[in-house]
């Protein structure tokens, strides 16, 4: 019986799997924006999910996802803390607001502040006999070597704590060099806000994670009792997102939390609930965006995955007659293009997948075509030449090559007209737009079939404006200045 992951990937371009494993907003930087060891781990993580897609989630299962996904990193090999799994030491990461220039890397939104404050309040209220609550907020200023904890108990009301947090987040956002808003701050106002997960024993962490799991399943059970399909699905998505957000906020692992929780576990939960897979555009938002905001984003992410599927094009292409393919090539191209995604970069990947499935005989084109190796020797002997079906089959493969190259021309021509943040090379540190496009095409079987003599003259025409966008963006850094003395 096919596993949930492979069933969902059935009509998704196999050479674009990397988009499921990385931040969607960084896709314009190409697959080489992430190191090979990262992809090795993500493939291992996917293989792990293939084997255990019907599992009831446990703390140990989540830890095994982490081990699968992180095992190829140098830190895993060289640092004992990374091989231990759940981190017993203090863990923290910086959060900022989605102010101008920071929308993609923002960890918390104004709409999500109340839910974040509620989480911190709950952490203090459930502290029990532990020395520190599970989660806190830390502030770092210039000259400080580590974050200073801002105790929730030092404020008379949650609203006072919230107002303080908003003010500090605004300063932290303005501190980043990527910030493009009107507010300028002085050196002594520079700030970093950290979401802190305090030190805990392994037994305590297992209890924390189990509590997160129990809350998820309780919320999921309530969602599944809803009779209206759309309302039920929305409630299921919100249950998943709140679970993933809490795991991400607590940063239970020394590194690799995003890939473990957001790219792997979250996609598994969506598969288990029949939602399909998602291309996660803004994983950073799972630190503190509101439940409703994450619902809207998840719906878009699910749609973005489906936008790559070749289902409609595959159905059309597999039902073509020999006469249509041979006699109306240009009309066939137009009809096929109408069934591809209007974004030429996505269409390029779809054409590549169509070509692969034709070679694999998963698509029989023209309709009813029987490959020659399947014919009997007697039948072959009786043939005086290639059949009309075979001729049409060869024409179909040539048609896909031509359409691929024509679509590649559209990619190059359209790139300069895209929003600057969507243009190839935006934000890349070292690679040019041409190199990035080449890295995407390098993964395509059809690009190899066309050959570099056909591909290179097209991609080298990529607008120099895109290179300028890349250069300007890479000059900025998302990291704040060092605050250590």
Provide an overview of this structure.
By secondary structure, the chain is mainly alpha-helical. It has three domains: 1-87 and 201-305, Fic-like fold (Orthogonal Bundle), CATH 1.10.3290; 90-198, no CATH class; 309-373 and 385-468. Helices cover 54% and strands 4% of the residues. The chain has helices at 4-8, 18-21, 36-51, 59-70, 74-78, 80-83, 113-125, 158-175, 202-224, 229-250, 257-272, 291-306, 311-317, 322-327, 329-338, 344-359, 377-382, 388-415, 433-441, 445-450, 452-459, 464-474; strands at 91-94, 135-140, 148-150, 192-197. A four-stranded antiparallel sheet has the order 1-4-2-3. Residues 374-382 and 465-481 have low confidence and may be disordered.
Q: What is the topological layout?
A:
Blueprint: H1 4-8, H2 18-21, H3 36-51, H4 59-70, H5 74-78, H6 80-83, E1 91-94, H7 113-125, E2 135-140, E3 148-150, H8 158-175, E4 192-197, H9 202-224, H10 229-250, H11 257-272, H12 291-306, H13 311-317, H14 322-327, H15 329-338, H16 344-359, H17 377-382, H18 388-415, H19 433-441, H20 445-450, H21 452-459, H22 464-474
Antiparallel strand pairs: 1-4, 2-3, 2-4
H/E series, N to C?
A: HHHHHHEHEEHEHHHHHHHHHHHHHH
End-to-end C-alpha gap: 59 Å
**Helical stretch count?**
22
Q: Return the CATH architecture of the largest domain.
A: Orthogonal Bundle
Pick out the low-confidence regions: 374-382, 465-481
- What is the oligomeric state here? single chain
Predict the CATH topology of the largest domain: Fic-like fold
Strand content is under 5%
